[in-house]
């Protein structure tokens, strides 16, 4: 038997929570049994200390999947130590984020970096987001077998969007307090934004639509393209969050594509090559050039992108990329 640790989060309208729930859903389809950690700080701690060890002692073989990161570093340290010491199963991580790359790359949190790397090295196998992240893991001495997911799957309850008229509009979904570049967006781009923490001083061509759950959001986005961009600038993706796109698989990318919506993505993003090869969007160095790029795309070219996105969405809705990576990884354990 194989298992997945199910960490119950109290948050709801976030891509991170949606990604973890979807991963568990798709693994349950593959026969993985969920080990459910309860909601609540004290309930979690009591469960991990007093109940989880007895569950693990009964597991003599197979795989236990932990979604990385889970909880605090102290909690994850305790959980993974118990898995390695008490069970006979292999410890496999599905990586969602690496904080060293996301927040600490330009800081001196050496102690936290050491803890994170030690935890990563504890795994018997790893599902990495993409080849760029895997390259970084190898450079840090992670020796366990690694398989690349390439892109997040997305359990999308809404139907893939039917072909829309190409109107050169842009949609952006996400946590809006992280996207400071919106204040500098060129006036010739019409952009519609979705998500929490909106600000009050956007330019006139930036229109706020609303904040919707990850399951409802695909039904609301009507624009020609979904935007994948981060940081403070429009000339490039800057700062820690912009740089993180070089390693990360943005969950908004999967939301767009699983809905049949082509994308505009930073050309240096780790997932840019995937978008290019799948012919589901535009790669861009600088948002100042976006309107020129949009005007060069014909109606027929746009239809091809939409068709490709719909075809790709069929795989993503079935968990194809995670399931394939995990099947390939287990063969190596």
From TrEMBL:
Keyword Transferase annotated: yes
Domain Glucosyltransferase 3-like N-terminal residues, every copy: 2-150
Every Glucosyltransferase 3-like C-terminal domain range: 172-328
UniProt KW Lyase keyword: no
Keyword annotations: Transferase
Top-rank taxon, per record: Bacteria
Official protein name in the record: Beta-1,6-galactofuranosyltransferase
């Amino acid at each position: 038997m194989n298992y997945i640790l199910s960490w119950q989060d109290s948050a709801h309208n976030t891509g991170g929570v949606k990604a973890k729930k979807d991963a568990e859903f798709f693994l349950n389809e593959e026969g993985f049994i969920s080990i459910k950690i309860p909601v609540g700080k004290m309930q979690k701690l009591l469960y991990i200390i007093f109940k989880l060890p007895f569950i693990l002692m009964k597991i003599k073989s197979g795989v236990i999947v932990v979604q990385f990161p889970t909880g605090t570093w102290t909690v994850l340290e305790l959980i993974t130590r118990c898995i390695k010491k008490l069970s006979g199963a292999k410890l496999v991580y599905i990586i969602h984020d690496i904080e060293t790359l996301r927040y600490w790359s330009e800081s001196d949190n050496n102690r936290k970096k050491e803890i994170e790397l030690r935890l990563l090295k504890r795994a018997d196998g790893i599902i990495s987001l993409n080849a760029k992240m895997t390259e970084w893991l190898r450079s840090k001495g992670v020796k366990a077998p690694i398989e690349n997911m390439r892109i997040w799957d997305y359990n999308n309850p809404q139907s893939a969007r039917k072909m829309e008229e190409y109107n050169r509009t842009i949609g952006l979904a996400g946590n809006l307090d992280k996207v400071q570049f919106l204040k500098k967006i060129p006036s010739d781009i019409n952009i519609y934004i979705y998500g929490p923490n909106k600000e009050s001083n956007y330019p006139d061509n930036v229109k706020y639509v609303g904040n919707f759950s990850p399951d409802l959001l695909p039904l609301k986005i009507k624009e020609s393209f979904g935007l994948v961009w981060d940081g403070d600038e429009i000339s490039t993706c800057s700062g820690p969050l912009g740089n993180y796109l070089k390693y990360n698989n943005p969950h908004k990318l999967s939301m767009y594509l699983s809905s049949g919506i082509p994308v505009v993505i930073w050309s240096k993003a780790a997932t840019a090559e995937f978008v290019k090869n799948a012919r589901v969007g535009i790669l861009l160095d600088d948002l100042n050039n976006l309107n020129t790029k949009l005007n060069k795309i014909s109606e027929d070219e746009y239809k091809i992108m939409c068709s490709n996105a719909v075809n790709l969405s069929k795989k993503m809705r079935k968990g194809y990329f995670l399931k394939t990576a995990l099947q390939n990884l287990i063969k190596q354990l």
